[in-house]
Amino acid sequence: MTHRLIRGGHVLCMDDTGTEGELDVRLRGGVIDEIGPNLAPNDADVVNAEGCLVTPGLVNTHHHMFQSLTRAVRAGQDALLFGWLQALYPIWGRMTPDDIRLSAQLACAELALSGCSMSSDHLYLFPNGSRLEDSIEGASEVGIRFLATRGAMSIGESKGGLPPDALVEDETAILADSARVVGAFHDPSDAAMVQVGLAPCSPFSVSRELMRDAALLAREKGVRLHTHLAENEEDIAYSEANFGCRPGQYAEELGWVGEDVWHAHCVKLDAGEIDLFAHTKTGVAHCPCSNCRLGSGIAPVRAMRDAGVPVGLGVDGSASNDASNLLAEARMALLMARVRDGADAMPAREALRIATRGGAELLGRGSHLGQIRPGFRADLAIWDMSTIEAAGNWDRAALLLAGPTRVRDLFVEGRVVVKGGELVLADARAIAAQASQAIARLMRAE
């Protein structure tokens, strides 16, 4: 068997021409080699996709994977953003390098089972000797592509910031380690399984100088920039009180706009900020479940898309979602856009496009990921539309309206990551058992 042939599925290509239909897809050498009806097997390993929908792998553009070990913490269940953070910071401060690795493995496992072939991660605290490579190691054990962003916090409570002083770092050390991890782990190639970006946590947890220096360093190294912006009314009020301007203007002043930048949430962008992001091609990671969970509001996604702002989807941290299911996130994006702007505001195919091609473009990989077309990397998801969830569905491509929430098969770089609804490279039950042990230890420290 020299290659794979996915046969008989309804293929949704997400290309510029809107190609979809009953097509076969040949995978060879980590790329999509050929697409067409009734392709000859030619000694391929044939994957039967009859009765299934075949899509590009989903792409998650915002996550805090370390939070996967702090889901549904009672003290933070009903709090707004700032109060929620203050409830959880002490718990996160007790985490170990093993916890960081395990939490990334857990998050990536759940993402893979939801059809996600690539995820970014925003790790902005490093308690008890933790390092960015702990999360990279955990993600690699599952087999999805990983964009690890080196986050940071430098302004603690004693200086007017939100995080405890014990969780902040010296800014010189932050920049030095940022340069280290880019040099050690960033792969700029089209086939990259691991890339690195720079991501100071937020304007209310780092200094103006660190924001500016991080942008300069990222551009020197040729990597992407990420942070939180305009998440809720508290965020806007903080920016106006401390910086004398709205978040979009603050970002622009410090070099945080451009095709190499994407911001998380942006629930409260005004019309001027949307125009700024559209003009500069600054991206937005839309996180509807987290925005609902924390009562932050509904992001103006229809206005962003119509203006030309690049938009992808993010599950956000599992402590504010409390899940890592990107297909569920795409469905929520569809529903919330309709709540805000009407039933015709977000077609099912468009929401799925945002979850696939939109995410790939947001993370700087739109030239080779996010579409099913010859020459693109072989990242595909197969959805079994014969399940009870999809029974009665007249339009298989409307997966987000009626369909399964777990992928049947997932291929990343042509390799099998999920088969028959189960992880191939990692043991989901073992991961869950390890998570239970870690949570018991974190709880005992209360």
What keywords describe this structure?
446 residues; alpha/beta; 13 helices
Radius of gyration (Å): 21 Å
Residue stretches low in confidence (pLDDT < 50, at least 5 long) are none
Count of extended strands = 17
Distance between the termini: 55 Å
Principal-axes shape call: globular
Would you tell me the overall average pLDDT? 96
Q: Tell me the structural class.
A: alpha/beta
Q: Proportion of β residues?
A: 15-25%
Largest sheet: 9 strands, mixed
SSE pattern: EEEEEEHHEHEHEHEHHEHEHHEHHEEEEH
Q: Which range best describes the helical content: under 10%, 10-25%, 25-40%, 40-55%, 55-70% or over 70%?
A: 25-40%
Number of helices: 13
What's the helix and strand layout?
Layout lengths: L3 E9 L7 E9 L2 E6 L8 E4 L3 E5 L1 E3 L20 H12 L4 H17 L2 E8 L8 H9 L4 E8 L18 H15 L8 E7 L7 H14 L3 E5 L3 H11 L3 H7 L7 E5 L5 H10 L2 E4 L1 H6 L7 H7 L3 E3 L12 H16 L6 H15 L17 E5 L24 E4 L2 E5 L2 E2 L4 H17 L2
Parallel strand pairs: 1-4, 1-5, 6-7, 7-8, 8-9, 10-11, 11-12, 12-13
Antiparallel strand pairs: 1-2, 2-3, 5-14, 14-15, 15-16, 16-17
Helix pairs in contact: 2-3, 2-13, 4-5, 11-12
